[in-house]
Model the fold of this input.
Amino acid sequence: MQINGYARPTTPLLAKEKNVVSLPDIESEYWFTHESVPYIMTRADHNTKDRAYTERSFIDIFKRAGYHTSWISNQESVPTFIYFMKEADKLTYVNGGKSLYIYDSWLDDDVLPPLDSALTNGKSNCRNLIVIHSIGSHWWYNAHYPKSAARWKPELTSRVITENSRQQFINSYDNTVLYSDSFWHQVRERLRHRNAIVIYLSDHGENLGEDGQYTHANDTKEVRNAACWIWCSDKYKSRYPEKYAALERNAKKKYNTAFLFHSIIDAGDISTPYIDKKYDVFK
Ligand SMILES: [Zn+2]
Done:
C-alpha cells in the first residue's frame, strides 16, 4: 500500500486523509487466512498461540461492555474462526456461496448495504463494533476489482501462475489495492461525522515475484508483512487525544499481529485486565 510506503499511488484517497496513521512494520504471525484470523481475534501471541483455540475473541469483550457487535463477511467462513463470527450479535454474509476457486466478479462494495444497516441498527445511541472481513487482494486478483477500475495494465491473463509476467501480477494486485482504497473511503465517509475509529489490518502479505515467489504459499518476509493503517474521525480524535498521540508515537515501531486484540479494546475505550500494554498502540 502507498500509505505503508509503496511507490505507486495505490491508496490516493487514504493519503489525503488527515487523521490517518500508517503502521508499516506489522509482522504477521501466520501467512494463511485460516491460522491468521483466529490469532488476530484473540489474546494469542507468539508464545501463547493455543489461545487462538481455547479463548474467546475481542468481540465477546465488546459485547460485555455493552456494544452491539456485527460481523460482515465477504469471505468464506472457515472452521478455525466461525466460532468468533458467531460471537457477534449479527452475522451477515455477502457473496455467500462463493469460494476462492470461483473466478467471477467478487467485490467489497457489496459490504456497504449491510454496513449501512449495522450503523443504523434501530438504536441510534448504541455503541457499535463492526468487523468487516473484506475479500481485498486475495487471489484471483482480477475478480476483486471492476474491469473499469483497472488503472495498471497489462493485467493477469491466466490463472496458471507461470503463464503471466511478474509485471502482470504486480499490476493486477495493485488494481485490487486501488479498488480497496475506494471501498474503505466509502466506509470512512459513513463514519466521518460520528465518534468512530477504523483499524485496518491484513491477515498476511503477498509475494509478487520476490525471489521467484508468488501468492502466499511460503514463509517469506513479504508474506509476513501485513498492511495496516488506522483512521479516526475528528470527534474521536478530540475525545481521545491521548490515544491518538500515543498511536502517532508508536506507529513506526515493529509489532506482531497480536497487537490487534489489545489495541482494538483500548480503541473502544474498554477497561479490562486482558489488555497487555506492550501490544497496545494507543498506550
Ligand atoms: Zn487471507
In short: Residues 166-191 form the longest helix (26 residues). The pocket of zinc ion is lined by residues 33, 138, 203-204 (CB under 6 Å). The chain has one domain: 2-279.
